[in-house]
Design brief:
alpha/beta; globular; disordered C terminus; Alpha-hydoxy_acid_DH_FMN; oxidoreductase
């Protein structure tokens, strides 16, 4: 049966669980656990999904929703829907074409792609199939490697640099059992021959000064990913960030960190109109996307769900999945009485029982 003829996978949580189970069957156990697992006891991993369910919506009635317009402008570019792909590393573990297939699938769906520094295909190969796309950058211990990666991404057509700020060290993930799962040739596909793996690990001394450094090297706007606090968001904006990405790294870093849905309103309130706000983490349905937009996000990204699509059906499944997620958002918008994304305002959501998020 062709992927496009299967049931939708983002209409509700049960459909998404079926997608995950198909991916589990398609992948080797160590690979599935590498992608699916979180840090520590995985409390943040679980909270990311459940926190969205605690966001209650306050739909409007008697609004003309005969035509729904899900378009959004992100860093000056108009996109057909506020749905994008978060950075996920080493995608050839999930599919032979890896990030190239992900890029093709996202492009066909009109979705914004974020390419990971830890990709398992060369930046230029991915860029040949990607449009539009951002490049996610870790600041490495050898900052010369970082500068070279960012320059290559900009030359290949990236339109923004995403500085991931929540990984000075890697979280301990109990489901990562195979130390040899990422061989040197995969780890260093974009680093060239003779690289020192220790110097290519994330630097623990990343600061707000690196926002300026990446902007100067690339000539592109910089988005800071991994922000969970309003005061940190303000520091990012003061340092020159064009966007702030609310994320806890999919629950893979500090276990016990606040869930994205809980952190998003504080960050959005702090930033106001000074920068754009994006979010990822536990988003599984079109209603979740609507919830995120109502709490202040302009753009919502999915990581694991896109990866599961890649694993079970390559580029075609990525296209179908992302298209269905955007369509599910459109249906949710109509039911909420919002004909455009501009009408998804803060009064549409109640973040916690008994507390309305004001307009």
């Amino acid at each position: 049966m062709m992927w496009g003829r299967l049931a939708a996978v983002f209409s509700n949580e049960a459909d998404h669980r079926r997608l995950v189970e198909r991916a589990r069957q398609a992948l080797a156990p160590d690979v599935f656990d590498f992608y699916a697992g979180g840090a520590g006891d995985e409390t943040t991993l679980a909270a990311n999904e459940t926190a969205w369910r605690g966001v209650r919506l306050r739909p409007r009635v008697l609004r003309d929703v005969s035509r729904i317009d899900s378009r959004v402008r992100v860093l000056g570019r108009e996109l057909p829907a506020p749905v994008g792909v978060a950075p996920v590393g080493y995608q050839t573990l999930a599919h032979p074409e890896g990030e190239v297939a992900m890029a093709l699938g996202a492009r066909r769906a009109g979705a914004l792609l974020t390419v990971s520094s830890r990709s398992s295909r060369r930046i230029e190969e991915i860029a040949a199939e990607a449009d539009p796309w951002w490049f996610q950058a870790y600041v490495l211990r050898d900052r010369g490697l970082t500068r070279e990666l960012v320059r290559r991404a900009a030359a290949a057509g990236a339109t923004a640099i995403v500085l991931t700020g929540d990984t000075p060290y890697l979280g301990r993930r109990r489901r990562d059992r195979d130390a040899g799962l990422i061989p040197d040739e995969m780890f260093g596909v974009n680093l060239g021959p003779g690289f020192d793996r220790a110097l290519a690990e994330q630097a623990p001394d990343v600061t707000y000064a690196d926002v300026v450094a990446l902007r100067d090297v690339s000539g592109l706007p910089v988005v800071v990913k991994g922000v969970l606090r309003g005061d940190d968001a303000l520091e990012c904006v003061a340092a020159g960030a064009a966007g702030v990405w609310v994320s806890n790294h999919g629950g893979r870093q500090l276990d016990g960190a606040v869930a994205t849905a809980e952190a998003l309103p504080e960050v959005a309130d702090a930033v106001g109109d000074a920068a754009e706000v994006y979010a990822d983490g536990g988003v599984r349905t079109g209603v979740d996307v609507l919830r995120a937009l109502a709490l202040g996000a302009r753009m919502v990204f999915v990581g694991r769900p896109a990866l599961w699509c890649l694993a079970v059906g390559g580029a075609d499944a990525v296209t179908a999945g992302l298209t269905e997620l955007a369509d599910a958002l459109t249906r949710a918008m109509g039911l909420a009485g919002t004909a455009t994304t501009a009408e998804i305002t803060r009064g549409l959501a109640r973040a916690h029982p008994g507390t309305t998020v004001e307009e």
